[in-house]
Predict the 3D structure of the following.
Amino acid sequence: MKPSTPSHEELASRPLDYRFAAWLVRVFARCYFRLRVVGAHHVPLVGPAVLASNHVSYLDPPLVGCVVPRRIHSLARKSLFESAIGGFIIRRLQAVPVDRDGGGGAGLKAILDKLSAGSTILLFPEGTRSPDGEVKTARAGIGLTVIKTEAPVIPVRIVGAFEAMGRHHRFPRPRSITIVFGAPMTFAALRTEAATCDKARLKEIYQQVADELMDAVRHLQA
């Protein structure tokens, strides 16, 4: 099934500076990283959605943000806004500043507020960049977020960004990068169970959602 066509309101909600920043990153990424995109049609063009991606590089948010034809909000540590170039880009890409760990009530509220407004949020369930480029275990917090919203969750895998600019690289290197989007996940049964279960089971559900989601990310093929 083809995705819905973006409404006039959705297109209009992408400010000119956002569109310019996305275009600039996209042109650079296609030339410098030979950027490929697989399965972008899985991302709904209208309504709330969660994009759940592996995290291997500071490049991840702008790369994902530049290839989806709608505005995407991501969480970014407040310290990143202090960088001249990086701060300029993530502001234009509508990133939401949070404390270092991105958790707590403020981070969750920011996510739920954006989803309630019909926006798309980009989250990194691992919580931090992978030290070796491999997909790691997700924190239970992504499960809590998923359970508290009815938005579909699209698994995303970024391949090659670690080689281009992993933890130990200060500047990006010209390596091929591919972004793969998977089919939406709804977790309908677990959301229904979470509405009536006890606290112990609820914690298990949060981790189960996180584990199933990262397993889906891990199995996406470039």
